[in-house]
Amino acid sequence: MKKSIIAAGAASVALAAMPVVGAFAAFTGGPFTDVIQTTIDETCTFARGATAHGAGETWTTDTTVTTKDTLSAVTITPAAAEATLGTSNFRVVCNDTDGYKVTVGTNPLALPTGTTQVHTWAYNAGAAPSSPTASYWRIGSTGDGVDLSNNIVSTKASAEDGKDFTVTYYAYAITGQDAGTYSAEVTYTAAQLP
Q1: pLDDT at residue 1, rounded to an integer
Q2: Rounded Cα distance, 126 and 149, in Å
């Protein structure tokens, strides 16, 4: 017990000898500033939508070109109302503040090579004609800034966090349109705006 009292007394003497807080030496130098930088590259993606095509439609994916799908549409009746053949869904994500444009390129509906086709079946880049005199096929789009007469199915002059749009295929056949299975390739191309 005597030893404990002596130890406490020595500690008290040590505390009394310490300098007052305000008397510590001031730091010299500083403050220092770090500037951090990181870069996000412009990245845009163009893909099929979560559901690639319309429900109940018959689509097959090419085994060698996986970005190529084929629609086997129902048979249409000549001189009847314009028929809806099917739909394709797409998605654009683009962080380029200048925006993007998706265009379509296609050709007329045609019978297989080597088959005689008397009547043409042209692509109509626009709305349905009010009184058609020839067979035609066309598309519609739910994209932004659609301008089908200039083959634009979606465009936006700013970044896009995620835009889904649907393209619908329509066809009309005149009386006497040649019998057979017609096909046309439709290519969608996305590009960043300058």
Answers
A1: 47
A2: 5
Q: Please say whether the beta carbons of 60 and 72 come within 8 A.
A: yes
pLDDT band at 12 (very low <50, low <70, confident <90, very high): low
Q: Tell me whether the omega of the peptide bond preceding residue 78 falls within 30 degrees of 0, making it cis.
A: no
As to burial, measured by CB atoms within 10 angstroms (0-12 exposed, 13-18 middle, 19+ buried), residue 9 is: exposed
Asked if residues 131 and 97 have their Cβ atoms less than 8 Å apart, the reply is no
Contact (CB, 8 A) for 148 and 106: no
Mean pLDDT of 60-72: 95
In a 3-state reduction of DSSP, which class is residue 75?
Answer: coil
- The amino acid at 31: P
Three-state SS for 29?
coil
3-state secondary structure the chain: CHHHHHHHHHHHHHHHCCCCHHHCCCCCCCCCCCCCCCCCCCCEEEEEEEEEECCCCCEEECCCCCCCEEECCCCCCCCCCCEEEEEEEEEEEECCCCCEEEEEEECCCECCCCCCCCCCCEECCCCCCCCCCCCEEEEEECCCCCEHHHCEEEEECCCEEEEEEEEEEEEECCCCCCCCCCECCEEEEEEECC
Helix, strand or coil for residue 53? strand
Count of residues making up the chain: 194
pLDDT band at residue 110 using 50, 70 and 90 as cut-offs: very high
